[in-house]
Every structure is written in structure tokens, then in C-alpha cells.
């Protein structure tokens, strides 16, 4: 691991450091994707020149209900893909951070968890791999809707 830069926090949301606090940022290349590197603060950077980009460009993640995502222009390993099939190039930043700093998930159904419960805080020390047990999120949501409907009737 090597220190490539120091990052001054600009906000207190989405995993950023509080304003004015310097945080050491460690960069590692993403295994299997040579064109990109991920920082310990959850930032994704392009390492090689592309059609319309320069090396060193920091990608802007897109916030969604499920977390932060970036689009990569390189082939993505199957364990990082958002969709199982197809050539979708959207990758969850938390999954990239966990894959880079923690290694390949130990189980094919492993998902990323957050120690503080905030899916916007994708720092390396905040993410971990785990396997969900019991009902899936869709099953829990369907059961919740059924209970709400029963209460309304």
C-alpha cells in the first residue's frame, strides 16, 4: 500500500472527511481491471488514457438508493458486475473498494455491508463482505407490504 495523495475533506456526507481535516488517501489498482485504481476513501480514478479521458481523472459516482455507482469503460470481472449477464459496465463503488482492499469475496453470494450502516460511506475501513441468510430483501419487502395492507383493511 502506498500513499499517493492527501485529501482535504469537503463535506461531512457521503463518507467525506469533515471540512479542513487532512486524511491520508491510499490508492490501489483494482485487481482484474488494470485501467482503474480505488482509494481508501472510496474514490475511483482512471490510470490509463481512454478515448476521451486522461490518466488521473477521478470518476464521479452516481448516488442511487442502493449506494454509489460508477461506470467503467474496461471489462469487469464477473464478481463485480451489477447484472449477472450482459456487458453492463456499472459497478458499485463499495464493491470495488471491498474487492480491492479486502480481496475477492469468500462466497459467491457475498454482499458488501457497512459498519456504520451508511451505504454512502464507502471508505475501506467501513466496508466488509457478508452472506445474507434468511429471506431476501424482496421477500422482506413483500411481507412488509402484506402487513401494511392487512392493517389498512
- Tell me the series of helices and strands, N- to C-terminal: EEEEEEEHEEH
**Helix residue percentage:** 10-25%
Q: So how many helices?
A: 2
Quaternary organisation of the protein chains: single chain
Radius of gyration over alpha carbons?
18 Å
Q: Average pLDDT value?
A: 79
Shape: elongated
Number of strands: 9
Major sheet: arrangement of strands: 1-2-3-4
Which range does the strand content fall in?
25-35%
Q: Which regions are unreliable across 5 or more consecutive residues at pLDDT < 50?
A: 8-14
The largest sheet is:
4 strands, antiparallel
State the end-to-end CA separation.
59 Å
Q: What class would the helix/strand composition place it in?
A: alpha+beta
Topology:
Blueprint: E1 2-8, E2 22-30, E3 33-39, E4 44-46, E5 62-64, E6 67-71, E7 90-92, H1 93-101, E8 110-114, E9 127-131, H2 137-152
Antiparallel strand pairs: 1-2, 2-3, 3-4, 5-6, 6-7, 8-9
Overview in brief:
The chain has 153 residues and is an alpha+beta fold. The chain has two helices and nine strands; from the N terminus they run βββββββαββα. The protein is elongated, with a radius of gyration of 18 Å.
Notes on the structure:
This protein has helices at residues 93-101, 137-152, and strands spanning 2-8, 22-30, 33-39, 44-46, 62-64, 67-71, 90-92, 110-114, 127-131. With 153 residues, it is α+β, with helices and mostly antiparallel strands. The strands form three sheets. It has a four-stranded antiparallel sheet, covered by helices on one side. A three-stranded antiparallel sheet has the order 5-6-7. It is elongated.
